[in-house]
Amino acid sequence: MYRWKVNEVLARSQVPLQLAADGEDMGRLVHSAGDDRDELVHRVLDGAVDTRDERAHAVSLFRARTAGVPEKRSAIVTLAGLLEQRRKGVLEVELTKRDSGALFDIANRFDLRHRRADQRTDYDPAFLDWIFWWYLATIELTDQLLTRRDDGA
Fold it and tell me: Is residue 69 domain-resident?
């Protein structure tokens, strides 16, 4: 009840914060997208049990009230790792190998995953927000593809 009331007040104030309702940061003040991306977070956190801890950790890092570039980068690296686990079994089966590779090109060419000297580091921090949401939505997509496959559809 308390969380609901505080979130109601925060929503009226148009401050992009809320008390997290789920994940490892439940009850903490976190950044809120204030749109359908908040529902995406709930769906992804309710997803596959075997990767729930990693998902919750990535979301917690990203939406932390004090999240900066290092935390957002770390969240993306975690999500990229989850997608890498599904690369052969889901992504390359449902997409072409080239298309699934495109998901990793950004993480590998920019200073996100491997941190090599030849990677780009001069991108706007807003890029981190975009790739986080893109990877999170792709994890939800792979959840749906796996569910459909398990259901025989």
Answer: yes
Residue-wise pLDDT tens digits, 55-75 = 999 999 999 989 998 899 999
pLDDT band with cut points at 50, 70 and 90 for residue 47: confident
In a domain, 4, yes or no: no
Confidence of residue 111 (pLDDT cuts 50, 70, 90): low
* Count of structural domains, the chain: 1
112 part of a folded domain: yes
pTM: 0.82
Report CA-CA distances (Å) from 50 to 36, 43, 54: 25, 15, 9
Res 147 pLDDT > 70: yes
Nearest to 89 by CA among 143, 152, 133: 143
- Residue pair 146/91 in contact (Cβ under 8 Å)? The answer is no
The residue range of the domain holding 74 is 12-142
Q: Within a domain: residue 151?
A: no
Q: Residue 64, SS3?
A: strand
